[in-house]
Amino acid sequence: MGPDRSDQAPGIRFLRERCEGAGWCSRVAPAYFGRDAEGLAVLLRSTVDEADESDLQSAADMCPTGSIELNVDPPRR
Amino acid sequence: LDETALAASAVHDGEHAGVLTLERVEDVDEVLRSTAFIQGAHQESLEFFGGTVLMLDGDPHFERRRIESGLFSRSSLITMEHDVLEPSIDRTLAETQRGYGSAPFNLVEFTRTVLLRIAAALSGIDSPAAEGSVERLAAYIHDMIDAAEADWRYGDSAALAIENGIRAREGFVDEFFRPSVERRRAMLRAPGGASDLLGELMAAGGMTEDAMLREVALYIDGAIKTTTQSVPHAFGHIEQWCASHPEDTKTDPEFLKKALAESLRLHGTVPRLLRICTDDTRLASGVEIRSGRRVALDFRSANLDPAIFGADATSFNPYRMPRPPHKPWGLTFGTGPHTCIGRLVVTGIPGVTEGSGAMMLRKLFEAGARTVPDQPPARETQTGHDRYTRFAIRLG
To answer: Residue A66: which of B70, B74, B340 has the nearest Cβ?
Structure first.
């Protein structure tokens, strides 16, 4: 398997080759993730608003394939 | 796949006569992603699974997964692997070496013992230090898992399994579940809370104690069953493969991940999944399904689809490259929004965690584990599951 092809944005790393189109990211953080014609996620924004960090953390946590990585991964409660 | 597994599959086909069976990867994938279908499985085991994340669809499914997703964050998975999985494997291995030396033992039981500790930690069930309590927890969980599989049991053994499961659950509630709830009630009032399923559900609120019990039981079942089923299969395949491929090393984590994935494809954790159509649908392949029709998604056949996995799809090849975008393990973990929430626990995060299956296999092979030629494996005969009940190996 070759290296992952990634869309890079400050605060978010989206590993498109791992995506299987579960669709949770576009639902929980629609300003940051959309879906392409194949149903796979696409990263829409390159900057992260502080107010959205919680939704982005949920998007990363809900992804069952580990396709979303955040620069800041706060420790669990 | 050997003929016993295929025969078990055929018997189950008869039990689902009248249900539309889909065997092509594309059809199964499309139904799992479609909003025109709802969960139709686990009708006999509804007593155990009703209302759990496995049974939900639409908005309730989304909300429940959101509450529980923190358990599978990158940092949680790293912590779980380092702080729970690895110590549990090391401890069980040391106990086995002390107890058995180089004598044969059952790999199925070994795997279940390792995973019991992980399942308890993940779901939030505290194991008291009282004499025999771990053994009692294991016994309760064994009977509860048997009952949860009632839908796949042959003949009239389902009713007995459910009866035993309900009795076991009563003991589990009194001795383990209720004390764990009480401890988390106190923990939630303290800074830091409780980072396990029970703690998350209690913090989110809105669920009855009975609903939380079913969710905890589902997690215990899932955390134990997949790896317990897949590790013995993978062990056998790896031993055979390496005997004729000396260039591959049985203790190489990357090779073991590939081998485990291939084994998961060949030996899926459930024979098939039932879904119910709620809106007249025409699949891309042209198959028409009327509202109300029950559809059986045949994972076992789909995972052997030669169009996706090649003409030799029924054989074991850890270097198989399925047609993109399909995964090496096929549909074993489901797909789309119904992808198994705990998949990364088993498969690992590439470059970050090893995964429960590969780590267990590596540590066993590092300890010199090998099969016992005069003790052939025994297959499950009571249910439609493709798994072993006994798989003898020895260490050293």
So the answer is: B74
